[in-house]
Design goal:
The structure is a single chain. The chain has 364 residues and is of the alpha+beta class. The chain folds into two domains: 170 residues, FAD/NAD(P)-binding domain (3-Layer(bba) Sandwich); 176 residues, D-Amino Acid Oxidase, subunit A, domain 2 (D-Amino Acid Oxidase, Chain A, domain 2, 2-Layer Sandwich), CATH 3.30.9.10. The protein has nine helices and 19 strands. Strands 3, 6, 7, 8, 13, 14, 15, 16 and 17 form a nine-stranded mixed beta sheet that branches. Strands 1, 2, 9, 10, 11, 12, 18 and 19 form an eight-stranded mixed beta sheet that branches. The protein has a two-stranded antiparallel ribbon with strand order 4-5. Helix 4 crosses helix 9. The radius of gyration is 22 Å and the shape is elongated. Bound molecules: flavin-adenine dinucleotide. The site of flavin-adenine dinucleotide has 41 residues, from helix 2, strand 2, helix 3, strand 13 and strand 17.
Length: 364
């Protein structure tokens, strides 16, 4: 710490609190980073607003290893998926809650899909994720003239996850509920000071799509995407599959299902729209023409980057500032691996994967 901050902290311990790490943001990225730093023995201060309405809170929570449009594996999925599953399982044990569930994804085929799938499953990198090709059995109400392909996926209950992690960390970290205001940040050669009261060696920004307003990381071409979801009640019909055809229908218990999701790059409010609701319901009707009751309608904004890769690493000019962001539409799959990458950079100076380094956008 700078000598002047240190002497202040020694003379006024109540005014200045010292930490190894300051984490900003209480969504998926911030929760994982705060957790990993704490587990690594760091003294962490976590500044967060309520996660209600964050992308993580709104998210459907799906983890699907394949991109259905082209039937290709998701970016780095062979590394990301095993890490994600073992990470969330370990966290479940620590929190004493189950929030990760296995689910079979049934991709209902369009007229060209059967041919595409038969061709692509000859590739081991695709076939390893495919359970079978056939049709959803014993479901006369479902329209599936070209059959379906089945894939092993996961569903993570993000609202329960956020609560469980916060409950765990509240016993170990200094958590400050509130908005981090960058104009109250001072930097020196040794670290940062916030609001004249908190000093830390490093500051990690995990602000979700609000990073578009960042004073420091605005050189990254963020391209946030709004998404909307409906919670439906469907009587006299039951499915254990996550059905997918233009939209997905996820069973979340009893007669309730989550229907999603839309993509809108223009309107970045978190206000649900009638247009999105109509669009989702019409797409559902094309394969499941049943009466449904809409019980909830939610909207959020995914923090995405123009090159469709996440970002994690140091700021090129401010050596105490780091970022974890750009999780896009697949945050649950990416975040465990990405937060581990950033942890090793921060604590062990291990080089970060070039594809996620914010330096890729830096032009002097
Ligand atoms: C409709 C929808 C469906 C989705 N479905 C899926 C899915 O099925 N599977 C999947 O993997 N992903 C899905 N996602 C994407 C997923 O939600 C994101 O990838 C991930 O949750 C992003 O996490 P984050 O922590 O970066 O951002 P967020 O969850 O948005 O968290 C950022 C938090 O930081 C807070 N914050 C920002 N600035 C400050 C500040 N200055 N001070 C204090 N706090 C601050 C924000 O208020 C927010 O709480 C979906 C997203 C949406 C919108």
């Amino acid at each position: 710490m700078p000598a002047v901050w240190l002497s202040l902290s020694q003379n006024s311990p109540d005014i200045l609190k010292q930490f190894d790490q300051l984490v900003v943001g209480g969504g998926l990225a911030g929760s994982l980073m705060a957790y990993r730093l704490w587990k690594a023995g760091q003294k962490v201060c976590w500044i967060k607003t309520s996660p209600h309405g964050s992308s993580t809170d709104v998210a459907a929570g799906l983890i699907n290893p394949l991109v259905f449009r082209y039937l290709t594996p998701v970016w780095k999925v062979e590394t990301l998926l095993p890490q994600a599953v073992s990470f969330y399982r370990q966290l479940e044990v620590e929190c004493g809650r189950q929030f990760l569930h296995e689910i079979t994804v049934a991709k209902l085929f369009g007229d060209q899909d059967q041919v595409l799938w038969q061709r692509k499953i000859r590739l081991p990198k695709v076939s390893r994720w495919v359970e079978s090709i056939g049709a959803v059995a014993d479901d006369p109400k479902l329209i599936q003239p070209w059959g379906a392909g089945f894939v092993n996926g996961y569903w993570l209950d993000t609202t329960m996850f956020l609560l469980a992690v916060e409950q765990l960390l509240s016993q170990h970290l200094n958590i400050i509920e509130g908005y981090f205001d960058s104009s109250k940040l001072e930097q020196s050669e040794e670290g940062i000071m916030y609001e004249n009261s908190i000093i830390a060696k490093k500051l990690i920004f995990c602000e979700g799509w609000n990073a578009v307003n960042s004073s420091f990381f605005n050189f990254i071409p963020f391209r946030p995407v709004k998404g909307e979801l409906l919670t439906l009640k469907i009587k006299d019909w039951k499915s254990n599959y996550l059905l997918n055809k233009d939209v997905f229908l996820l069973p979340i218990g009893d007669q309730f299902y989550c229907l999603g999701a839309t993509y809108d790059w223009g309107d970045l409010s978190d206000t649900p729209t009638e247009a999105a609701k109509t669009d989702l319901l019409e797409k559902l009707k094309a394969f499941l023409p049943l009466g449904v009751e809409v019980v909830e309608h939610r909207a959020g904004v995914r923090p995405a980057v123009a090159d469709r890769r996440p970002v994690a690493g140091w700021h090129p000019e401010f050596p105490h500032l780091a970022i974890l962001n750009g999780l896009g539409a697949r945050g649950l799959l990416i975040a465990p691996w990405l937060s581990q990458q950033l942890l090793e950079l921060i604590l062990n100076d291990k080089e970060i994967d070039a594809e996620v380094n914010p330096l890729r956008f830096w032009k002097k």
